[in-house]
């Protein structure tokens, strides 16, 4: 089954997101746990959660993906920023457990001239404080484009974080097609090679989700600017190969393209037409 969705506003709750997803032809969705620039999260509405579970079961919605706010930087120089990141993620995971067995994605962070090795150590220390044995949520490290001092610009950097986390069975990876293209992994001309490298360095069993986005920038630009499907340098032919690849086709795909709901509906319909049952 092709699992495809997009990023939706969580302002009206889980049930509203699920209904919106179904209305545009999606069977999953991604959402921010709170304002993407930080701040407090709205209280969990347990009645809304109950109705969401019922609606999701009736409409085939399985894996949903929460996204941490962009301001979360687990390897910042400033200790106060790192403390904010820690408290935010602890609270987010607590909230995620109201929808057991789902996924929580975050950008590993920016080391801000401390060096990648220091950033990796700080991120792993952060995760060791967040993850606990009973949690059902899988935390995903996102592949990054490599702009500035981002950590996670290579598969090796993600692997280094994973190796330093004690309960790393709770960790996975979200591969962003725009980010890896901009980061120097040629998913257009050498998808098999990229996935073989991912498997060798990290392991395909760790790959849990795909952010499916075209890129406004050419290969290895290290810029990170998303484009609508087919409107950028990756292109429709490459996306057809990506969504049908044996190593990827059963994973959930999440659009983060510059779109409104009607645009997402069109992209979902396009991708569904390219998917080979």
Textual characterization of the structure:
The structure is a single chain. 39% of the residues lie in helices and 16% in strands. It has helices spanning 14-23, 46-59, 79-96, 116-130, 155-163, 177-183, 191-201, 236-244, 261-274, and strands spanning 3-8, 28-32, 65-67, 103-106, 138-142, 171-176, 207-212, 214-215, 226-227, 252-255. The strands form two sheets. The protein has an eight-stranded parallel β-barrel, surrounded by four helices. It has a two-stranded antiparallel sheet with strand order 8-9. The termini are close together. The mean pLDDT is 96.
Brief summary:
Helix 1 (14-23) runs parallel beside helix 2 and helix 3 crosses helix 4.
Radius of gyration: 18 Å
Report how far apart the termini are.
7 Å
Number of helices: 9
- So what's the overall shape? globular
Strand content: 15-25%
Uncertain residue ranges: none
- The total strand number stands at 10
Strand line-up of the largest beta sheet: 1-2-3-4-5-6-7-10
Report mean pLDDT, rounded to a whole number.
Answer: 96
Structural class: alpha/beta
**What is the string of helix and strand elements?**
EHEHEHEHEHEHHEEEHEH
> Helicity, in percent?
25-40%
For this entry, give a set of tags.
277 residues, alpha/beta, 9 helices, globular
Topology:
Layout: E1 3-8, H1 14-23, E2 28-32, H2 46-59, E3 65-67, H3 79-96, E4 103-106, H4 116-130, E5 138-142, H5 155-163, E6 171-176, H6 177-183, H7 191-201, E7 207-212, E8 214-215, E9 226-227, H8 236-244, E10 252-255, H9 261-274
């Amino acid at each position: 089954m092709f699992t495809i969705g997009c990023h939706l506003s969580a302002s009206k709750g889980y049930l509203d997101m699920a209904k919106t997803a179904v209305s545009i032809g999606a069977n999953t969705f991604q959402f921010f746990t709170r304002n993407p620039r930080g701040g407090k999260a709205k209280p969990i509405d347990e009645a809304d959660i109950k109705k969401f579970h019922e609606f999701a079961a009736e409409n085939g919605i399985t894996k949903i993906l929460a996204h941490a706010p962009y301001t979360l930087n687990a390897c910042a120089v400033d200790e106060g920023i790192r403390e904010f990141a820690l408290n935010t993620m602890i609270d987010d995971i607590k909230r995620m457990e109201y929808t057991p067995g789902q996924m929580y994605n975050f950008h590993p962070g920016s080391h801000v001239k401390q060096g990648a090795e220091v950033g990796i150590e700080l991120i792993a220390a952060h995760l060791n404080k967040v993850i606990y044995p009973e949690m059902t949520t899988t935390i995903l490290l996102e592949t990054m484009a490599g702009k500035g001092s981002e950590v996670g610009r290579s598969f090796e950097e993600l692997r280094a974080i994973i190796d330093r986390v004690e309960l790393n069975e709770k960790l996975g990876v979200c591969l962003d097609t725009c980010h890896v293209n901009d980061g120097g992994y040629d998913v257009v001309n050498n998808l098999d090679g990229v996935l073989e490298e991912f498997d060798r360095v990290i392991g395909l069993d760790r790959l849990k989700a795909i952010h499916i986005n075209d890129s406004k920038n050419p290969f290895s630009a290290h810029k990170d600017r998303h484009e609508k499907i087919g409107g950028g340098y990756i292109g429709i032919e490459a996306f057809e190969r990506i969504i049908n690849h044996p190593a990827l086709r059963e994973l959930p795909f999440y659009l983060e393209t510059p779109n409104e709901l009607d645009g997402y509906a069109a992209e979902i319909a396009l991708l569904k037409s390219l998917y080979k049952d």
